[in-house]
Every structure is written in C-alpha cells, then in structure tokens.
Amino acid sequence: MLYTMYVEKDFMGDQVGTFPDLPGCTVEGDGMDDLMAAVQPAVEAWAAENGLSALPPASDAEPDFSNPQRMPMLVEVDEAFLQG
C-alpha cells in the first residue's frame, strides 16, 4: 500500500520521516537510502506496538507542499507481515 511520508532534516542533519496516516510512526536515517531502508521495519514495529491486525487505509488527500523544509513522498509498505 502507498502511504504519504513527510521527510525533513532534524537538528543533527539526519533525515526523519513521519506518516500522517500512521500517527506516531516515525523513521530516521543518516540519508535517504538509510531512511528508505528503515520504512518497512518502522511500520511493522509501529503496527505491533499498536496491536494492529491491519494497517489503516491510506488517505487520498493531496500532499501538503506548503513547507519547503518538509518533502512529501509516497512510499510502498508491504502489508504481508500482517498475514503471518
């Protein structure tokens, strides 16, 4: 499933991603490659912590481009981990 993730740099220069459709789910990485590699494990951990058997549906709202410090992007999340 595709989710919108907003990416910005924190005060240490690391990339931080937040998901408006997955409240409280955040992901961090030293750069974009690290950030993208951490998305799936972060979503799986977030779902487990919240006791979810299914992920909430992704919003069809348009991404917010009003903050130039925060880049919206679509990321693929594989929901197969919820089947097992």
What is the highest CATH level, the class? Alpha Beta
Overall domain count: 1
Rg for CA atoms: 13 Å
Number of strands: 4
Would you mind describing this structure in some detail?
The protein contains one helix and four strands; from the N terminus they run βββαβ. It is α+β, with helices and mostly antiparallel strands and 84 residues long. It has one domain (2-55, 71-78): Double Stranded RNA Binding Domain. It has a four-stranded antiparallel β-sheet, covered by helices on one side. The longest helix has 18 residues, at 32-49. The mean pLDDT is 93.
Structure characteristics:
4 strands, single chain, about 80 residues, Double Stranded RNA Binding Domain
In short:
Helix content is 21%, strand content 26%. By secondary structure, the protein is an alpha+beta fold.
SSE layout:
Blueprint: E1 2-9, E2 15-18, E3 26-29, H1 32-49, E4 71-76
Antiparallel strand pairs: 1-2, 1-4, 2-3
